[in-house]
């Protein structure tokens, strides 16, 4: 019964992931159209700024999500520490926690820098685009970020359920 329930949940997550991937493809198409528009109206150096921002957006958001996920796994492992855990493993977990915490703080600084750059890019685009086009740009940036977060969350849930299912099937 439990295996059947896990498989059912896994199937639902796979279907949801397909929907998110489809939305991501649509968002990428909107991004391509927006890129062509920006290239046609902006100066080359302004267009390059736009492209660097869009490229870095995905990288920085993905980095933050990855580090947060890894940090959460280490924190979960640290909560499971008990009297039977050897000192070497405790030290390793503490060191990984410190390292990941520092890296996540650095990534947050990158995100703050990226937010400042987004304001600069918005200012540049405001000179060339209509209000509707500017609104479309802001929606694109928001959707791109949201879809990255949703996709990463689904991947994590799927991975967890797959591991649970595998462990359950091994134990039977």
From TrEMBL:
Tell me where on the tree of life, at the top rank, the source sits: Eukaryota
Q: Report whether Cytoplasm shows up as a keyword of the record.
A: yes
- Locations listed in the record: Cytoplasm, Cytoskeleton
Q: Which residues form a coiled coil?
A: 90-120, 144-171
Matching PROSITE patterns, A to Z? ASD2 (PS51307)
Q: Which GO terms describe its molecular function?
A: actin filament binding
Q: Which GO terms describe its cellular component?
A: adherens junction; apical junction complex; apical plasma membrane; cortical actin cytoskeleton
Any one of the GO BP annotations? actin filament organization
What Gene3D superfamilies does UniProt report for this protein, alphabetically?
6.10.250.3120
Query: Where is it mostly found?
Result: cytoplasm
Residue ranges occupied by any ASD2 domain in the UniProt entry = 1-172
A Pfam family of this chain: ASD2
Keyword line: Coiled coil, Cytoplasm, Cytoskeleton
Q: What family does the Swiss-Prot or TrEMBL record give for this protein?
A: Belongs to the shroom family.
Q: Which protein are we looking at?
A: Protein Shroom1
| Source organism per UniProt | Tinamus guttatus (White-throated tinamou)
